[in-house]
Write a structure and sequence with these properties.
Arc Repressor Mutant, subunit A; 2 domains; about 70% helix; about 0% strand; Transcriptional regulator; transcription regulation; sequence-specific DNA binding; AraC_XylS_family_regulators; HTH_AraC
Length: about 150
C-alpha cells in the first residue's frame, strides 16, 4: 500500500471513531470542534471528510441519532416532549421540534400520539425498524403515512 493510501486509511479510522463517539455519546453536549479535537483534526476538515464518507455532516448525523432515540422515548410515552428533548441531549426545544419534523415528517407530539395508536401490539424491535427516521430530508417524500 502506498503512503497516500495508508494515510487515507488512518483518516477513515479516525472518522469511524468520530461516528462511534456520536453513536455512544449522543446525549452529551457534543459539537464539531470537540469531535475534531478528539481526533486531532480541524473542525472544517472533519466536517468535509465526514460528509464525503458518510453522506452528511457530523452535526446532522448527531441530530439523527438524537431523533431516533427521541422516537423510542416518545413511543414509550411516559415523558413529555420537553423531557424527551433534554434527555436526548438537545438544548433547545425549538431546534429539537424543527429537526424532528424535518426527519420524521410530523411534530414530536403528533408522532407520540400516532405511534401509540399505530404501535399498539407491535414489538419494540419491529417498531424501531418500521418507524426509523429517514435521513437527508427524505421524510416528506418517502415516509409512509401513519394515519
Amino acid at each position: 500500500m502506498t503512503a497516500k493510501g495508508e494515510a487515507r486509511l488512518r483518516e477513515l479510522v479516525l472518522l469511524r471513531r468520530v461516528r462511534d463517539r456520536i453513536d455512544r455519546d449522543y446525549a452529551q453536549p457534543l459539537d464539531v470542534e470537540a469531535l475534531a479535537r478528539g481526533v486531532h483534526m480541524s473542525a472544517g476538515h472533519l466536517s468535509r471528510e465526514f460528509r464525503a464518507v458518510f453522506g452528511e455532516s457530523p452535526y446532522s448525523y448527531l441530530m439523527t441519532r438524537r431523533i431516533e432515540r427521541a422516537m423510542t422515548l416518545l413511543r414509550i410515552g411516559d415523558m413529555s416532549v420537553t423531557e424527551v428533548c433534554f434527555a436526548v441531549g438537545c438544548q433547545s426545544l425549538g431546534t429539537f421540534s424543527t429537526r424532528f419534523s424535518e426527519l420524521v415528517g410530523m411534530s414530536p407530539s403528533t408522532y407520540r400520539r400516532l405511534a401509540r395508536e399505530d404501535g399498539a401490539g407491535i414489538p419494540n424491535c419491529v417498531a424501531k425498524q418500521v418507524m426509523r427516521p429517514i435521513r437527508n430530508r427524505e421524510a416528506a417524500t418517502s415516509r409512509p403515512n401513519l394515519t
